[in-house]
Amino acid sequence: MVDRTSSEFRSYLDLYERAPLLDLGEAADRARWALHPESVVTYIVDRNINYTNVCVADCKFCAFYRRPKDREGYVLSFEEIGRKIDAVKALGGVQILMQGGHNPYIPFEWYLDLLRYIKRNHPIHIHGFSPSEIDFFGGRFGMTIEEVIRALVAAGLDSKAKPRAARGPGEVAGAAKGTGEAESAAVNERDKPGTDPTAVFVVPAVESPRATLREIRPDGSTQSFVVDGRPLTIGRGPDNGLVLQDSRASRHHARIYGRQGALLLADLGSTNGSWVNDRRIQEIALGEGDQIRIGDTVLVVESVEEA
């Protein structure tokens, strides 16, 4: 259990939210070498196949699903799924990730027949079905979690996805499909020897924050302006969103923009650099009270409001 009030957790969170991108990447690389000192990195080519978008889970972050009887709802035929598998195999693919909505109209035997069809006609490693889907199958078809998993594995399922963590600003994990003890049971059953689970993270789209900044020019005059989520390029050139009357600023000096709910500043390869709180940066998340120095111009972040 993570203690989110601990100083260690706060330091990690501060690193994630505030560190320049290159510094964060260097820290991640050091951790990777500590865990895996061998100089080999591998990957596989795979493809996600969403066999149906009909779902009754109503996840808040999902723009993909359709409610039952929606005319945009679909269930892929076995042949369509087979063609998708052949397409990824032609590109060197060795695995498919197969997941879909909680569709109340599909019988359990359909899933078993699909797995058998794939293994018989389009053999490939099948990775699929989240804990929430397993929980849904159990409740819908009157089966235990163990019975569901054993049936799927016997039909051809090779490995299973562990729960998604829906990540957004200010949170480590949010609500995804399925919650509570039933899904925990599905996770625990998957983690038994021989079930070969992996973790999947879903990062929902998050609107950029709205921020108010104050420009302090070299001559001492000031102006306030609002950044509303659209990228704002800063520099001496007349084509910038914020044109600086500053001879020490580069033509295209820096950019302020939003990403996953955070407000960021990135240097655009300027001659004199971009500085935040007297530290030269390449990219950094901005917060209320931060002072940005570009040439002899100072930009003060007066407020940052979540979208």
Structure description:
The protein has 307 residues and is α/β, with parallel strands linked by helices. It is 28% helix and 26% strand. It contains seven helices and 16 strands. Strands 7-6-16-15-12-13 form a six-stranded antiparallel sheet, with no helix packed on it. A hairpin with a 5-residue loop joins β6 (210-216) and β7. The two termini are 30 Å apart. Mean pLDDT is 84; it is low at 163-176 and 179-187.
Write the layout of secondary structure elements.
Elements: H1 7-18, H2 21-35, E1 46-50, H3 78-90, E2 95-99, H4 108-121, E3 125-128, H5 131-141, H6 145-155, E4 160-166, H7 180-190, E5 197-202, E6 210-216, E7 222-227, E8 232-235, E9 242-243, E10 254-259, E11 262-267, E12 274-276, E13 279-281, E14 283-285, E15 291-294, E16 297-305
Parallel strand pairs: 1-2, 2-3, 4-5, 8-9
Antiparallel strand pairs: 6-7, 6-16, 8-10, 10-11, 11-14, 12-13, 12-15, 15-16
Helix pairs in contact: 5-6, 5-7
In brief:
This protein has 307 residues and is of the alpha/beta class. It has helices at 7-18, 21-35, 78-90, 108-121, 131-141, 145-155, 180-190; strands at residues 46-50, 95-99, 125-128, 160-166, 197-202, 210-216, 222-227, 232-235, 242-243, 254-259, 262-267, 274-276, 279-281, 283-285, 291-294, 297-305. The chain is 28% helix and 26% strand.
